[in-house]
Amino acid sequence: MGFIDASDLLNVSSPGLAYIVLGGFVVAFSMVSLLVKEKLFINEVVLGTVVGIIMGPHVAGIFDPRSWGNSTQTVTLEVMRIVLATGLFAIGVELPGPYMAQHFKGLIVMVVPTMAIGWVIVAGLLRALFVDLNFVSCLAIAACLTPTDPIISAAIVDGDIFMLGTGGRFAVKHVPLNLRQILSAESAANDGLAYPFLSVSIYLTVESSRRVAIGEWFIVGWLYEVVLGVVLGAILGRTFAWLMRISLRKGFIDRQSYVAQYLAMAFFTIGIASTIGSDDLLAAFAAGNAISWDGHFNTQTEDEIFVSVIDLVLNCACFVYIGAWLPFDAFDSPELGITPWRLVVLFIAILALRRIPSVLLLYKWIPEIKTWREALFSGHFGPMGVGAVFISTLALTELPEPHNPPESQQELLAATLQPIVSFVVLGSIIIHGLSIPFFSFGRTLSRTLSMNTDASTLIVDPSNKIPYPGAGVYPEVVERGPMSETGPSNDRTVNFAVAE
Question: Fewest beta carbons less than 10 Å away: which of 246, 431, 468, 488?
Fold first, then answer.
């Protein structure tokens, strides 16, 4: 009887390793999720990305999405699409029914001029740092970095308006509800509106006639993609809500199946929208919001955690994927004009200039933002993540495969697009993902220093400089006069430790 070679039994494959990494992270994160999210204020966005980097091709070499050949772009695009669609659908559902109508003015100001100003500013920064790219190519890259990422936003600032948020306790305590709602709605709307910003850049790049490019942009980029996407999503959402009410009233559906429609409807909407070539992200958001207009769907699903579980799993898997997908070797490509110092300068400039100036300038026309401090927070809080990866991957489908070295401006754009975008995404995950832990640590340190300062302040007897027994801790020194049977007299407050 021969021995069986153990190697014959092993079936090591890329999908198997991917399942191990993704499933293992979700299991490990779930075991300590309460500690990590509510004590350390670190969410699955940061941890998932770190795990992806460690398991990816540049460290452990276990999980490498870019080794899948021609299918890599397709897989990346669809993974991001699914995560974005479910997140945007959830934002639409969880926002109060009349929210979009009641807050239309503030939302329009937050989305349109803020995006447009940031788009042009980022393009200008790119043109200054990467001189081989023309301004139109810079506009295309800037379009990927313009929208606020709804997934990172939901993971950080959403509290009681979102069951899926992991900002949770900290966000509820320190970020006003009106601010959390407008940031969530803005992140959902401007992710879908990134399509026109990208399409005008792509049309200007690939079309020889500028007039033809602008015409196609207006007809296709705005009317067919954006307007049709919103109308389609709203119609699907209202139709779905009407059918579900009838089905529930007649007893045709159980509660579990009702809740499952939450996920199924998101997939159904993006399937139809992407098939006809419309804006699937805006369609998903519009469908979710249309479903919640009368509040019936929210009432039926408010006690269910199924959606939160699915969303957590998708988010974990998505950011592990992004961590492994990041092209670290492309961050130093001098032949393309890409060097680490240029990327670092670009990222710092984007943090400072992409949103903060425009929000500070416009916040008086945004009723939901009350003070300049809230405007500063809203301007800072513009993370770039899943949406940027999705838009950049989508852009590559419209561009030619680049030669080495690139032979045209189109090929140069195709070669530099994702290295630049992915570096900014990595920086945003670190800075925005760790904003709350840093802020919490700063508050804790401030309280500790304050307590230590207070602890050195005592009530002393001016005759012998000895503290009175049981005097306690006060924010300033109190000098007391001679003790009497009824207690100290002639007290005087001073601002130094021992009265002279």
Answer: 246
The strand pairing partners of 479, in sequence order, are 460, 492
Pair 115, 197: CB distance under 8 Å: yes
Distance of CA 197 to the CA centre of its chain: 19
CATH, residue 254: 1.20.1530
Contact 426, 388 (CB under 8 A): no
The percent helix, strand, coil of the chain (3-state, each to 5) is 70, 5, 25
> Which residue has 């001679």 as its token pair?
482
Same domain assignment for residues 345 and 473: no
Residues 122 and 208 grouped into a single domain: yes
Cβ neighbour number for residue 338 with a 10 Å cutoff: 21
- Give the residue from 108, 103, 105, 171 showing the smallest Cα distance to 381: 171
- H or E segment and range at residue 494: strand 492-494
Distance CA 483, CA 497 (A): 20
Distance separating the N- and C-terminal Cα atoms of the chain:
99
Cis peptide before 405 (omega within 30 of 0): yes
Residue 430 resides in a domain: yes
Q: What is the mean pLDDT of the chain?
A: 83
CA distances 136 to 34, 197, 208, Å, are: 46, 11, 13
| d(C-alpha 220, C-alpha 227), whole Å | 10
Return the closest-CA partner of residue 155 out of 91, 85, 97, 81: 91
Residues 151 and 264 reside in one and the same domain:
yes
Contacts of 496 (CB under 8 A, 6+ apart): 477
Domain count for the chain: 2
Cβ-proximal residues to 435 (8 Å cutoff; 6+ apart), any chain: 156, 380, 381
Domain that holds residue 350: 72-306+331-448
Q: Which residues of 91-128 are buried (b: 16+ CB within 10 A; e: fewer)?
A: bbbbbebebbeebeebbebbbeebbebbbebbbbbbbe
Q: Are residues 344 and 391 in the same domain?
A: yes
pLDDT digits (tens, 9 = 90+) for 425-481: 999 999 988 877 776 666 666 666 666 655 555 555 555 555 555 555 444 444 444
Collapsed DSSP state (helix, strand, coil) of residue 459: strand
**Is residue 307 predicted with pLDDT exceeding 80?**
no
Q: Is residue 206 exposed (0-12), middle (13-18) or buried (19+ Cβ within 10 Å)?
A: middle
Report the SS3 class of residue 479: strand
- Say yes or no: 270 and 413 in one domain: yes
CA angle, 50 as apex, 49 and 54 as ends, to 5°?
Answer: 115
